[in-house]
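Note to self: the last two entries modelled the partners one at a time, which told us nothing about the interface. This time every component goes in together.
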Amino acid sequence: MTQDVFAQYLITGLSVGCIYAIVAIGFNIIYSTTGIINFAQGEFVMLGAMAAISFCQCLPLPLAIAAAVLVTMLLGAGIEFVFIRWLVRPTVLRTIIITIGLSILVREAAWHIWGNQVRALPPFSGDETSSLLILGAHITPQKIWVLGTCVVMVTGLSLFFSFSLLGKMMRACAANRTAASLCGINTRNLITFSFMLSAGMGALAGCVMSPITQTTYDIGPGLAVKGFTVAILGGMGNSTAAVAAGILLGVVEAFCTHYMPLAFKDAIAVGLLLLILCVRPRGLFGSRAEVSWGS
Amino acid sequence: MRKSIGLCVLCLAALSAALGAPSLTKAGEPIKVGAIFAVTGGASFLGGPESKTVEMLVEDINAKGGVLGSPLKLIIRDSEGSPEKATAFAKQLIEEDKVVAIVGPSTSGESLQIKGLCQKAETPLLSCAAAEAIVSPVLPYVFKTPQSDSFAAERICARLKDLKLAKIGIVSANDGFGKAGRGQLQKAAPGAGLEIVADEVYEKDATDLTAVLTKLKAAGAQAVVNWSVVPAQSIIAKNIRQIGFNVPLFQSHGFGNIKYVEAAGAAAEGIVFPCGRLLVADSLPDNHPQKALLVAYKQAYEKRFGEAASTFGGHAYDAIILLVEALKKAGAAERAKVREALENLKGIVGTAGIFNFSPAEHNGLTSDAFEMLTVKDGKFVLCGK
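The predicted structure of the combined assembly is written out below.
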């Protein structure tokens, strides 16, 4: 393998991994506040991209993306308000069934609104053919946007959770909901907020990746599976770990295509996940406490 | 109740026709034609235009007085692309509705599933799906209107030979369409003196094909042939340019929809693919035998439905006009006579090409039915020699 081919695989893996990671972050936000694994996360990603594509026809691109993120956040809040809020003691199984049901509902609604056409946002800079040369490998400006968004998201979130009052309240709610509410924290509103935040993150992820991956009404489940894999691989609830795990998975997949038929790519991902679950059930970077999730 | 009386009348009519083959309709009564299309579901990009086309065409025929003095009555069923549903609908159309022939289904999988059934019930089937296996080996009652995959593969390989590109890389999706195309390319390539240096199959909903293209680049491919439908065929176009892999990109006839060009944007420029002439109808020479029909269909469709006409709708158009010709020639709406008439139709101009059927040839087209097209300034144009 020559150096530029090596670099090309590395960069491909890096950008694919970042896409996995930004989807995984959405899972983590809701999980770390509520213990719910939201299988409709992929639908937030799809909705964000679809809404942005629609808004793009009458608004400039940055405004269209902002509007799409906002709309998806409101929808996230609405979903929590209607379907999750009234659950007194949600069990893992129950919330999984509800969120899977929701994902089907949102997907079908999207199909009726946008049809089954393949759509895409225009690239944020340059056009569909432009690329930059780094170490003999080509990288498109849009992939740099994805990498940048990923870095900003993770930094922003860790600052938010460490320093802002709202972030601290969410962590308190995650650690012990009863104790948090005894301290005067309105845990219900916080859960609504965590759905909004994760819907917003998902929508943003959908927008930055749309020029690369394109968007159809049914991209949600595929993304959710990859994002969930990465979230588990890194350790549920830990966004920085999700990035590391996403990049690891992306790079492994990219190099695998060189040595074996492409058809085995997903088998590698699932194989890796099984291996981690057997050897290190808390994920690559997870803490021991996370193993008992759901209890 | 009314239905069962109708059925009794029909039975009586059938009985009264006595010894001869039962005529399904009397003069003046509507001639029932069944249609099975994937109007919704994953293959709706085929079934949608197909069902719209047949509705429009049959309305037009009836407005002009119908066929053999009777109007056509179209019974459309939405199979959602599922072979199981297609089977159930085919049975219903044959046994309950007693249609004279079935048009469709949209996909190869469904067509292969029901062709045996139609043969057994001795009901002509005019499939709108491309797979060779539908009409090979020939079943007397089974026909198809789209050009075969092998024609597309032959035209692509011939073009590559003309361009003196000997080392090719094949990439295809892991669905029925991709597998069939890959097989045809593997068969056609050695004949044209081409060497396949890489042959990769990817997930049909893959979103980033940079890695596999890097592999093809490292393998020294001088041209890439991709065989898939959306979304991968737009993604591959973007990725190949993005990694600076500047070799000609060939696509299958599945690329024949301007929406896919829009999805790939600037990266679609220069893609070469074989396709029926519908998309370039306006730029055909005026004396081309298909021109008048293609332009008329395209304009009528676009005016009525406000969306671009696709070659897929054209396959259903061809099925209906072939059926009408066969009915006229047979002189009666009887399944066996219609079948025999279909088999002997010659020189019928359709959207896909000029159909010449024979007892051994139930597609009736040759590889001339395809034209090599390319994308220039976001539009389809004929490929220069």
